[in-house]
Amino acid sequence: MARLVGLAMMALLVAAPARAQIDPRGALLERTGWDAITAGQGAAAAKAFREALAADPKNARLHLGAGLAATLERRDEDAKDEFERALVLDAKLTRARALLGEVLYRLGDLSEAIRTYETLTADSPEDRDAQATLERWRREADLHDRMQRAIGSHFTVSFEGPAEAELAAQALESLDRAYWRIGPLLGVYPSDPIPVVLYTSEQFRDITRSPSWAAGAYDGTIRVPMRGALDKGTELDRVLAHEFTHALIRTLASRNVPTWLNEGLATALETGDLDWAQQQIREAGAAAPLRALQSGFGRFTGDQAKVAYATSAIVVRRMLDEAGGVAVANLLRDLGEGADFNSAFLHRMQRSFEEFW
Ligand SMILES: [Zn+2]
């Protein structure tokens, strides 16, 4: 028996290099693809895996790589297709199943995401993170099942009980005001109703896992913790306008948008008044360097976040003042289509970014 195992091992050891000899180019492409994933370079990874798959279309690992590349580029539908393909070829590729669940969740298909994680946790009972994610999603599904909905022409607002019905009606009115204020400014009018969910603070932290300073979140659904917003109508307007702007930005560009531009536009269009932002930067001594504001702000402490939002808002306010909302919207469209930031900026703002800021 030991000998047989030994022989089987030998066969495996021999098989790997033999395969590489048959297709060294494929092995090299795959290596390039994984290196690009590690470096966060979605486009380069997508290209490498696409070429590798052309020669070896039934390789589950290559489909996993192609899916990860698509995830990095925020092409969630493509990522879903690739992870599903990987799992058809190799049902035990648990990494693909974990990523498929995440992408389904991002696409708003909570029930399918839950089903995927039920299979994942049955296959890998030792995976505590997957178990915790599954439980969180189940709590979200239970909560959403319990919720009622207020339907407007551009938004649907979900809320938990009759006590929140009045607030939901106020939220709908506030969202409609934001729609007719910000839509014309950017020249964007989403046709499909945007889902909005009102949470308690605890539900909000649990479901979005946002930092404690966050007043709202947008991930395809506008999610807002209502406590506190209740007593102050202006705060409700501010938070909903901010998250609605994120929804507009998503319709213009689902990817490639630097965080300072995304958050800056949402913050600049909250109320229009940016005196607080100037004040914030004066107090901090300096604006935040934009290169530190390219990706998510979730890692910042409350004070760092304030300067990050203030800086972003002031930069985007200047863009709006100089070139107008439609030019900023066109810049976002170009970025979403994969354009290089500096060239797109020069084209739409009529001067180089370096000269601008
Ligand atoms: Zn935001």
Q: Explain this structure to me?
A:
With 357 residues, this protein is mostly helical. It folds into three domains: 24-144, Serine Threonine Protein Phosphatase 5, Tetratricopeptide repeat (Alpha Horseshoe); 147-247, Glutaredoxin, CATH 3.40.30.160; 253-357, no CATH class. Helix content is 67%, strand content 6%. Strands 1-2-3-5-4 form a five-stranded mixed beta sheet. Strand 2 (155-159), helix 9 (165-186) and strand 3 form a beta-alpha-beta unit. Helix 4 packs antiparallel against helix 5 (76-89). The longest helix has 22 residues, at 165-186. The chain is globular. Mean pLDDT is 89; it is low at 1-21. Residues 242, 246, 263, 266 line the site of zinc ion.
SSE layout and pairing:
Layout: H1 2-22, H2 24-38, H3 42-55, H4 60-72, H5 76-89, H6 94-106, H7 110-123, H8 128-146, E1 148-151, E2 155-159, H9 165-186, E3 194-199, H10 201-208, E4 217-218, E5 222-225, H11 233-252, H12 259-268, H13 275-284, H14 302-323, H15 325-336, H16 341-349, H17 353-356
Parallel strand pairs: 2-3, 3-5
Antiparallel strand pairs: 1-2, 4-5
The protein binds zinc ion.
